Amino acid sequence: MPDLTLMGAMHDALRREAGRLAGVTARVDVDPRTVLRAAVGWELLKTALRVHHSAEDEALWPALRRGLAGRPADLALLEVMEAEHDAIDQVVEAVDEALAGPEIGSHHLGDLTDSLVTGLLGHLRHEEEQALPLIRAVITPGQWAYFGQVHAQRIGRDAFRILPWLLDGANEETSTVLAVFPEPVRHAYRHRWRPAYLALDLWNAGSTPCQGP
């Protein structure tokens, strides 16, 4: 049975950041458009989604399809998983397009981010309730290891920020997750990457409040 600790850590991190994103657009003391345009947290959330979804699409769902041959209901679930990925990616793109536009309303941005948060949380719940049991039952250790390799390759040079982002607040999981990485990565995480990450204002919490008329 595959060890799903890393998968759980990623899902926890995505939920955490979805909550922070929702908090940005709910603020009344600053313009959320200005905050998101400069937010490191938004860039990291997008990077994590791209890495996680593309690794699943490339290395996890195809392996599941082979293991689920002759089980049409379960195969249909994988189609739904990929469709949910596409829908989330489209909303992310729509948020970026709105932020890049010269004139967007904060209500429009709020609607888009609400849609993203709702879609992402629904997808994570759907995957955990229906896809993870299939992964536990069907995926071999070798297939799971390959998925992990693809995931790591897609993180690539972003590891210095994605790893501390992934483990932000994950107290009990931290040692388990770090154990899968070589010692040089663990050393860099402890002594350079995590301190630098903790110094970031991910969602511009210190943004200048809106000025009155």
Task: For this entry, give a set of tags.
213 residues, single chain, 0% strand, globular, mainly alpha
What's the topology here?
Layout: H1 5-26, H2 32-37, H3 40-67, H4 72-100, H5 106-138, H6 141-155, H7 159-166, H8 171-178, H9 183-198
Query: What is the radius of gyration computed over CA atoms, rounded to a whole number of angstroms?
Result: 18 Å
Shape: globular
- The low-confidence parts are none
The percentage helix is: over 70%
Structural class: mainly alpha
Quaternary organisation: single chain
Q: What does the average pLDDT come to?
A: 90
Please give a quick description of this structure.
The protein is 77% helix and 0% strand. With 213 residues, it is mainly α. The mean pLDDT is 90.
Could you explain the architecture of this structure?
The chain has helices spanning 5-26, 32-37, 40-67, 72-100, 106-138, 141-155, 159-166, 171-178, 183-198. It has 213 residues and is mainly α. Helix 1 runs antiparallel to helix 5 and helix 4 runs antiparallel to helix 5. The relative contact order is 0.17.
